[in-house]
Amino acid sequence: MEKARHNHHVHLSAEQIRNGIIVIVVAVTVILISYFELKGRLG
């Protein structure tokens, strides 16, 4: 009966969704900051 819980079609919990959004936002922010810093250095 426990195996049913471990399939990949489980709905994401609100916490998992929030964590995913935070990870994406942080990643995008880091990429943008490094991109603009590089652009600024190169002129």
3D architecture notes:
- This protein has 43 residues and is an all-alpha fold.
- The protein has one domain (11-42).
- It contains 1 helix and no strands.
- The longest helix has 29 residues, at 14-42.
Main traits of this protein?
43 residues; mainly alpha; 1 helix; 0% strand; rod-shaped; transmembrane helix; membrane
Query: Number of domains in the coordinates?
Result: 1
Q: How many helix segments?
A: 1
- Report strand %: under 5%
- Strand-pairing-aware structural class: mainly alpha
- How many β strands by DSSP? 0
Residues in helices, as a percent range: 55-70%
C-alpha geometry: rod-shaped
Low-confidence stretches: none
Radius of gyration: 18 Å
Keywords: Membrane, Transmembrane, Transmembrane helix
Transmembrane segments: 20-38
Task: Briefly summarize what is shown.
By secondary structure, this protein is mostly helical.
Break the fold down into its secondary structure elements and pairings.
Layout lengths: L13 H29 L1
